[in-house]
Amino acid sequence: MVLRIAIPLLILGKGTNLLVKDDGFRGWVVCLTQGLKKIEQKGDVVEAEAGLPLQRLVQFTVQKGLTGLEPFFGIPGTVGGGLAMNAGAWGGELKDFLLSMTLMKDNGEVVERSRQRLKFSYRTLDLPPFWIILKGRFQLEKGKKEEILEKVRSYSEMRKRTQPLDYPSAGSIFKNPKEGPAGKWIEEAGLKGCRMGQAMISDRHANFIINLGKATAEEIINLMEMVERKIYEEKGIFLEREVRVVGD
Question: Engineering a disulfide at 207: which of 73, 85, 183, 197 sits with its beta carbon 3.0 to 4.6 angstroms away?
């Protein structure tokens, strides 16, 4: 008889959209940023491995005079993480530029899937459990380097003006519901600046919870739950979390 023991498995990029509970995560953690950082250009197509920082991908395309990914400058995650959650910014999504993706199945087989065969939706990629994203191939267009750089500067300035970049956070806490931006409803409910311990709803952007110094995961989760209850009670809107919570 073969005894199989199920050990929890967490596939991790940079963890920028992840909240780990205070007791930690008991299981295997596979961190893709320890490798898988190659990037290469083939004409208008750029191939990037999953552990590469998304910001580095944008910088590479700018250097090569390729346009399309400028809105993603400043997103702190990895290529793999960006694809796994179908990262978006300023009206665009990463899937919009994807040609294909290389994946490892749970049995170790490596396969390539075209964009058409992948099930993307808003901030989501539907993959079987324990499949690992290895790399993505992106179709871009040639552009003028000066114009591309100006777009990057513009998006960077907008991000600085509208997001609380001076404090640690996990990015946008909630997905935008069909009724409109989550931050709008949170602000209208008067929750900007609301605190639980060292966790606070940003007074710059209401869809961010910032760490004022020594916030615990419990404080952040309690604040998230309070926002969810308040918005549902006052607006009848269910807020779905964008931040992923893991751990014991």
Answer: 183
Per the CB < 8 A criterion, the answer to whether 118 and 111 are in contact is no
Which of the four CATH numbers 1.10.4160.10, 3.40.50.300, 3.30.465.10, 2.60.40.10 does domain 9-160 have?
A: 3.30.465.10
The reply to whether 123 belongs to the active site is yes
Domain ranges across the chain: 9-160, 166-246
Indicate which residue of 56, 113, 115, 123 is catalytic. Answer: 123
Helix or strand or coil: residue 50?
Answer: coil
Per the residue annotation, which of 100, 169, 172, 202 is the catalytic one? 172
Q: What is the DSSP letter of 212?
A: -
Catalytic pick among 49, 70, 219, 242:
242
Helix, strand or coil, per DSSP, at residue 158? helix
Q: What is the pLDDT along the chain (248 residues), one digit of tens a residue?
A: 444 557 888 988 888 899 999 999 999 998 888 889 999 999 999 999 999 999 999 999 999 999 999 999 988 899 999 999 999 888 889 999 999 999 999 899 999 999 999 999 999 999 998 899 999 999 999 999 999 999 999 999 999 999 999 999 999 999 999 999 999 999 999 999 999 999 999 999 999 999 999 999 999 999 999 999 999 999 999 999 999 999 98
The second-level CATH assignment, the architecture, of 166-246 is Alpha-Beta Complex (3.90)
Tokens 């964009």, residue located: 115
